[in-house]
Amino acid sequence: MKVSAVVPVYNAATYLEQCLDSILAQTFTDFELLLVDDCSTDESSQICDCYASNSQIRVVHLTERLGVSTARNIGIKNARGDLIAFIDSDDFVAEDYLLALVTTLEDYQADLVFSEFNILDQ
């Protein structure tokens, strides 16, 4: 597996499905989606579990609230991919997001790739 897309999740039910659907719609398909639920108190945990029926998705449920940085680090420890992509649970990505990151990384033999973003009012 090439990429582990790590999504730390905490009380993101309002945006989570749009986020996950955008990741699952990627043109680059050699990835796993790792959701790290940081003790959400809304419906986020249930949404994660519903999506986990897809074999491309795994969920880690934390037993205490540890914060986004620790959730990301737990995602790294559980990742199976050669590369890590962090996506926030209240974000959504273009269908070529992972392809662009991997291509840029390989073309420039880079160790790290950042992407642009747009802020949308919804």
What does this structure look like?
The protein is α/β, with parallel strands linked by helices and 122 residues long. It has one domain: Spore Coat Polysaccharide Biosynthesis Protein SpsA, Chain A (Alpha-Beta Complex). Helix content is 34%, strand content 19%. It has helices at residues 13-24, 44-51, 68-78, 97-107, and strands spanning 3-9, 31-37, 57-61, 83-86. A four-stranded parallel sheet has the order 3-2-1-4, sandwiched between helices. Helix 1 runs parallel beside helix 2. The longest helix has 12 residues, at 13-24.
Lay out the secondary structure.
Elements: E1 3-9, H1 13-24, E2 31-37, H2 44-51, E3 57-61, H3 68-78, E4 83-86, H4 97-107
Parallel strand pairs: 1-2, 1-4, 2-3
Helix pairs in contact: 1-2
Pick out its properties.
4-stranded parallel β-sheet; alpha/beta; single chain; 4 helices; Spore Coat Polysaccharide Biosynthesis Protein SpsA, Chain A; globular; 19% strand; 122 residues
